[in-house]
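Attaching the record inline, Q. Sequence:
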Amino acid sequence: MKVFEGNILTVNKDNDVARFLVEDGGRIVFVGKELPEKFTDVDRINLGNKALIPSFCDTHQHFASFSQFHAGLNVMECSTNKEILEGIKEFKGRCKEKIMIAFGASPYSVEEKRLVSREEIDSVCAEKPVFMVKYDGHACVVNSALLKLVDSKVKNLRGYHPDTGEMNQEAFFAVSDYITNSIQIPTLIKNMQRAVDYQASKGIGMIHTVSGVGFPLNMDITMEKLVAKGIQHGFQIRVFPQSLNVKVATSRNLPRIGGCFECALDGCFGSHDASMNEPYVDEIGGNGVLYYSDEKVIEFCKAANRAGLQIEMHAIGDKAFDQATRAIKAALDDFPRDDHRHGIIHDCLPTREGIAICKEYHIQLPMQIAFDNWKQEPPEYTESILGKERNSRLNPVRTFMEAGCIVSFGSDGPCTDPDPIVWLHKAVNHSNPSEAVSVQDALRMCTYNGYYTTFDEKERGSLEEGKIADMVILSENPYSVPADKLINLKVEKLFLGGKEYRPQAGSVAGTVLSGLFSNKKA
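Structure, as predicted:
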């Protein structure tokens, strides 16, 4: 039993701030302003100026991909292509894998204002295949060694550019499938454990992962389920299979389906293929790419809804957002359900009509507020392709909230680093001040609303009596910190089930490997 004394930010329905919280056996047994006499002799943790909050929840990431890229070369902070090439050259000497994976290249955050090319990568690494993934996870650059391995699989696909080595759209997905098929299972398990430890260090107690990214027989879904079972310290993983085939979820007894890749309705702004109602305003123009017809998306949503599954669809452009809302509406008109919690991921550029449907049909919105004022896709770039008016409507957190929609935050990892302090800061300090929210509302979006998204709010997401003691100690009280200083908050400790999280040090591998051999359909 432990007593926490200090700033207890409950994130309950009234956003109460308590003085005391008592944990016993992994559960919260008391929260209040005055400590009952029966607890006065229990050891106390005095928070001082710090704060105790619920653990964070990342409501959208690609866990298998994040695990691999987290173990690879991250070039997001590079300011020139020369730096990227130097990083590849250095990483080559310590990379033990057959294919070198790098992530985070952006033409908008380097001086050259273009992606590094195939020939440039060849100049520093010609002998080992290199898979350089663009920051948005929708395109890549391959060197000649990798192009030689994949050329026959991609040369007839949309998005094939062998001259520069850039692959996007269908060609990118085909290259990604090849890469995932080449990864050894023990390596992936080890990288998944490291990724869990890393996210726990950020105060995250639960992730929602969208899975099914090219592994044979959707092995990543199986492994993520088994990793979730094998973790001893209470870290939670909820899996969404990225498939338009309902049986991929139902055959694995998963209650949800959706995500990106096969469930993506459009592309993204960085690759100029987010689907738009009005054309892009730059010299490239066009309306982006809508991957499926309304009929196909509606057919999928109806089947998934009738199967009792929770649906999530990827939509970035306004045309894709409208398609997602129409499809979910059609599914619920066909077979009404009171508490479905269907959602739309990203929601970067919604329309009034689509927001009205979200409100009426209770469609929840797992957003990526980290995209606001994002180094990899800066506002000057998005304004150059969208125009000033549309650019001002990106990532409208407050608009969604005032419409009565449930908003939660996720990283879209590996596209952005899973860091809830960044989400908190950006929601309160939105680049469009009219879309900023209070720190109390932002904290709810980082915690309770995330757990609500997958029906976990009865056990987690707020500090209330009877709930599991999943909690974070922050270095300061976010309710007292000046808005522009929120980014300086630090996660000092994560408690899951009342126990301080400690890195697992490879303890999960045996559980996962034995599970793979004993249950191929996990």
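The longest strand covers residues 44-54. Residues 296 and 327 are 9 Å apart (CA to CA).

More tomorrow.
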